[in-house]
């Protein structure tokens, strides 16, 4: 495993712990600058890895990239996804009602306003927004191939409740959130019809997927992320436990499921027409 990968996982697990960088550095007996250097891929001793693992409450092997990584906070999970996406050449996903990497600035704006109404921890909000901004920018620069399957039932709820479905917000903001949701689904229909190179969508018309998952294929390996966290949820939410792994048995099993669902899903003109039908039925007027 490369030192940069150990550093990436160290940062993700630090965010998962909820501890500040200076707090971890103090307990470890190093400077905060030294901790940041570890996160950037500087050489780290095995005894330091052991002590970090104890502090972060993970196994040393997991910190070294061997085994399954578990995350109970959206912040740490999406940071880990960001790291893997930056090296991925292909992304296959059973996703939220949208594919975040190609959403509009309006999506980010309405979500930021909804989160600000609910979450008092400004630093948490800033960290969350920085991660998502970095994910979008990385996609813009690298343009990995992306195949996304969307559940029809989740799209219906998205149109009825709007961006930030699980976030408590004022009636006025909820109305705006529904308008943005309708705009995003309309954009996906347009993207399906435009058929841009390297970007494909399909619609799971008769399937309510039980698991959102992402397969990210890089030059050296494929990573699987199983995700209970929607990209439009509050960073303070605690709704489940996600996992990230490169274990071949997990990756291959999910790849087989994704291939079957892709073959059975609604694509092209039929998918675009179905999305516009859902807009007519469920979007705010």
UniProtKB/TrEMBL annotation:
Q: State the Pfam families in the record.
A: HTH_31
Recorded hits in CDD domains, A to Z, give: HTH_XRE (cd00093)
Q: Name one GO molecular function term.
A: DNA binding
Q: Which InterPro entries match?
A: Cro/C1-type_HTH, Lambda_DNA-bd_dom_sf
Q: Where is the HTH cro/C1-type domain?
A: 10-63
SUPFAM superfamilies under this entry? lambda repressor-like DNA-binding domains
In its UniProt entry, what is this protein called? XRE family transcriptional regulator
């Amino acid at each position: 495993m490369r030192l940069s990968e150990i550093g990436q996982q160290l940062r993700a697990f630090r965010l998962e712990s909820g501890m500040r960088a200076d707090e971890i550095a103090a307990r470890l007996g190093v400077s905060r600058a030294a901790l940041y250097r570890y996160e950037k891929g500087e050489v780290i001793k095995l005894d330091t890895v052991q002590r970090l693992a104890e502090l972060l409450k993970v196994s040393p092997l997991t910190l070294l990239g061997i085994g399954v990584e578990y995350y109970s906070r959206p912040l740490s999970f999406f940071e880990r996804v960001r790291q893997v996406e930056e090296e991925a050449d292909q992304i296959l996903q059973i996703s939220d009602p949208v594919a975040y990497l190609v959403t509009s600035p309006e999506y980010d704006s309405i979500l930021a306003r909804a989160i600000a109404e609910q979450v008092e921890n400004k630093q948490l909000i800033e960290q969350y927004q920085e991660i998502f901004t970095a994910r979008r920018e990385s996609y813009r620069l690298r343009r990995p191939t992306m195949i996304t399957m969307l559940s029809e039932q989740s799209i219906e709820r998205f149109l009825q409740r709007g961006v930030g479905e699980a976030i408590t917000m004022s009636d006025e903001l909820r109305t705006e959130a529904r308008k943005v949701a309708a705009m995003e689904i309309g954009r996906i229909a347009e993207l399906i019809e435009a058929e841009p190179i390297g970007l494909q969508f399909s619609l799971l018309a008769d399937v309510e997927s039980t698991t959102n998952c992402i397969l990210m294929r890089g030059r050296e390996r494929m990573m699987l992320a199983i995700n209970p966290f929607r990209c439009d949820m509050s960073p303070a939410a605690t709704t489940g436990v996600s996992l990230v792994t490169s274990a071949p048995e997990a990756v291959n099993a999910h790849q087989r499921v994704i291939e079957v669902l892709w073959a059975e899903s609604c694509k092209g003109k039929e998918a675009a027409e179905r999305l516009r039908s859902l807009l007519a039925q469920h979007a705010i007027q």
